[in-house]
Amino acid sequence: MAGELKKAAMPKGHVPMLDLSARELRDRMAAGALQATDLVGACLERIAALEPEVQAWAWLDGGHALKQAEALDAQRRSGRPTGPLHGLPVALKDVIDTARMPTQNGTPLDEGRVPEADAALVTRLRAAGAIVIGKTVTAELAFLHPGKTRNPHDAARTPGGSSSGSAAAVAAGMVPLAVGTQTGGSVIRPAAFCGTVGFKPSFGAIPRTGVLNQSPSLDTIGVFARNIEDAALLAEVLFGFDANDRATVLAPPPRLHATAMTAPPVRPTLAFLRPPGWDRADADTKAALEELVEALGERCFETALPGIFDEAAEIRERINLAEMAKSYYSYEKRGRDRLSEEMRGALDRGKDIPARDYISALDWPDVLYAGLDEIFERCDAILAPAALGPAPEGHASTGDAIFNGLWTLCGTPAVTVPILQSETGLPIGAQLIGRRSDDARLLRTARWLEGSSPRRPTYDQAYHDLRGAGLFLGLSGDHAVAYPASRSGRRARSDCGAGAVGRVLHLVRHLIRA
């Protein structure tokens, strides 16, 4: 389309209602200004428009979702109390059991599997008034072999994994909220690649009963949302003790949402560190993080991890593979030939790990965590990259979890804050890490950072911003061109050079269809 100029069209599948945050949608439904059926209908419309390209869903039944919405609307009209997630559609990674809904764990060995009972977290979602709209694509058995999902920003790139469908569904505006799991980097990394908030709480904060068991010492439930407030709203409902999950602790759940929404008593201080693997980071990631550190000024200091952390990736993998070989024994016995090459190789390596090495590895999380004390004494949160770079091209891999596995091993809460981007306009996530069990404070700090940094707009927001300024976009050769919608038709051209053109061209690619 070189030389051809077109007026920007409405982004495909745009539904104005879905520009609102989850909390705003919830409040409108509570006030009777919005029906849950209308919200679910809007989500289904968006899904129908974008799913052929994004492929985020493993199972979806629009009729069933609407019936859930109808029941919730009737509940509100009757005057009965409504829950904190009343009427909000939530997508679930397809490793989380849902009663009378398929849960197939991303493997043909579980094709057609329909659990009899909900996972503990699903029970909590339903009690809070959430609508389980469908199941999202996962990598095979929540490990490495990718599913069908594509990155909403560029279908030629990976969305990350293993919670690929959950991250992509939220990033594409199909749903306001989603749930995933992380054993290495399966929440933080796809959130970074797709440009959403991804929150991995402290280990044991959310019960895993009824969720695929891969590595009991590492498996953690996480959430996806478009902003920190919404992530806190969803996570708070899921937190709490479960007698069937020994990783959980009998303690009052934190007030995540209320705390996240308060201003910090003093301006937070962040500790920026270059974790093991920094030398492999993309130039865009290094530049973006260093510019952020510079912008934060005296509120951020640079530090380094003790040398012992260089062994963390190997230790985490040792625990993961040894426990996975045990947890997935039944899959291997039922159909090893139907498992991917990546899975077969991982199971073989897990079986070869000596018991003494596995048992000694279990001592490391507390040792490493103790090594963070000096850093946490000086800061409110640690700042680090969420991934090596923007989403890599191709779909053979879900990316590298080198910047995530360390914090999963330590059991600390972590959150992706999508405030950075590459020269070509792709999302780059900043990762914040907090002390164990200090999840509420971490979210408050993350919301402060979110509000302190210029956020990359969604395509729909960008469209409205441009139209509100009286602008249309077009392409002319290698340039993105902005034209005012003036009666005279006089053109005011705004050309961008090789560096800055990235963001505009990336936007144009989605707003203007050939």
UniProtKB/TrEMBL annotation:
It comes from the Bacteria. Transmembrane segments: none annotated. Pfam families: Amidase. Residues 38-443 form the Amidase domain. InterPro entries: Amidase (IPR000120), Amidase_dom (IPR023631), AS_sf (IPR036928). Gene3D superfamilies: Amidase signature (AS) domain. One of its GO terms (molecular function) is catalytic activity. Belongs to the amidase family. This is Amidase. It comes from Limimaricola cinnabarinus LL-001.
